[in-house]
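Re-run with default settings, no changes from the original entry. Doing this only to confirm the output is reproducible before filing.
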Amino acid sequence: MKRLDGLRSAAKAPAHPALPALSALMLALLMSGCSTPRPMQQGPVPPAPQAPAEALPVLTPRMAAEAEALTKIAVMQDRLYRVAAPLLINNAELCKSQARNLLGFTAKNRHSYPGDYNEAAHIAFGMGERLQVTGVLAGSGAAQAGLRRGDRLVSAGAKPLPSGPNASTLAGAVFGPLIAAQPSLAMGIERDGASKQLTIPVTRACGFGIELGNADNINSYADGARVMVTRGMLGFTTDDDELAYLLARGMAHNILGHAASQRNAGTIGSIIDNLVAVQPDTSMLIGSGGIKPMPPELDAAADRLAVVLLARANYNVSDAAQLVKRLAASHPATVLNGYVANHPATALRVAAIEKAVTAVKAKQAAKKPLLP
């Protein structure tokens, strides 16, 4: 799914009566600006007019299932973005050339969803042609300015923002030069039918895309520009600290340029491009998917840096080694589309993590800067 820069904040909307499987909380995550369902009529239903001015959209069982799938994806993406936020913002100085000026939100419209999911997003969630905010990155300028999930994007720096099928790409071209050249950005939005002006400070952060992989294999990927965690891996993690460590490791691989140095960037990038789809081609995951195992010394280097990134974002670093051990025990390297097959040097990695944790804790106790 296409993204702009950043994340979400819920807007109230009535639940659609044809969606009994969706909780009100889940619906609040994606529904914004939905029209109120037409009241049910009492008594006999009059015949339909021959040429109705506007047909009432019908949410079919298939669309209801698709809407539920989109809602589950949104919940998982929310968790990813929430956990990633402090890692991206607190480690900007360590990302070096990969740090960027960001506003701190994501936005989509109905065309961000392919095929029938386009209609499901439109009818069930109220998404139309105009981009609307789907998430707000905690601690970002967008969050400080009060941008909310469901806000519709109208203008940026007095320039009108595009709508329609290519809105995400075209809007990115508008935002890019503006946030690169100034410390804040004036934005016009529409909220609850009323126009509103916000001034959003620019946030310096690591410019890595954080992606959800719509597949059940237990894996995560980093191609130099993005970090992806599959829904299978998301379910494998027991808490946010474990998820944060996986994200930090992906960031560390990107910072250290490992995908490029191993000539894996194109292969991993293709897998990420595929898995971001609502319905990816899982045949690409047969075997190793063409990914070469990471050399032990590079994996150990990523682990050492990941511990620092994790600590700087105020996550617990003590359980990282245990996560690596659990992954190796549950999904060994013989599972070719799994995490350990791509990162097989478990013993060396555990030793590197434990040494890095000891060093980080010593720096914290001495109140020294947390640097690699």
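The mean pLDDT is 84. The two ends are 34 Å apart (CA to CA).
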